[in-house]
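This part of the workshop introduces the protein records we will be handling. To make this concrete, we reproduce a full record directly below:
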Amino acid sequence: MSGQFIVIEGLEGAGKSSAVAVITECLEHADIPFTQVREPGGTPLAEALRDLIKRPWDEDVTAEAELLVMYAARIQLVRNVITPALARGQWVIGDRHDLSSQAYQGGGRQLGAELLATIRNVSLGSFRPDLTLYLDIDPAVGLARALGRGELDRIEQEDLSFFERTRDRYLQLARDDEQIKIIDANQSMAAVAKDIRDVIERHLEVHK
């Protein structure tokens, strides 16, 4: 069986960690070797960049600077962890990937699709996930959940309109790409888990 790159996407509080747990359970049951990664992060340099991008600064962090740091961390992870794992036949479960930048910086920061496409193509070329699960949640509900977990980071502290633009872009991109499956994350945790299992099991059937 060839390696597959499966990504979980969504706003803060959408339940990405729980979704990753459901997928790992499915792969363990199918006896498929896998590794888990997160963005930004996943390598020593990428983890350092994660800290830089998430903590508050006593200066304005420009949208363009934020975007470039995200891609610097992403390419480190893809080149040094993800593609080697896939080459070994492992599956990779990613907590966020390129779609996050398309939605957060492209939509939320309003940098636009053209700039995002240029940087993505330079950084990643034709590399794409094999399957993306987008956990769709009302931004107000997601932020309330995130706040319940503790202190919010720099990006999580943006106003509601930022996350509404981000969600709109996520949905637009998901509806235009058959490799992105939309999961209603406003449901109960049990219902969300069932929907995720259904998608993963169908994917496993195709890629046995």
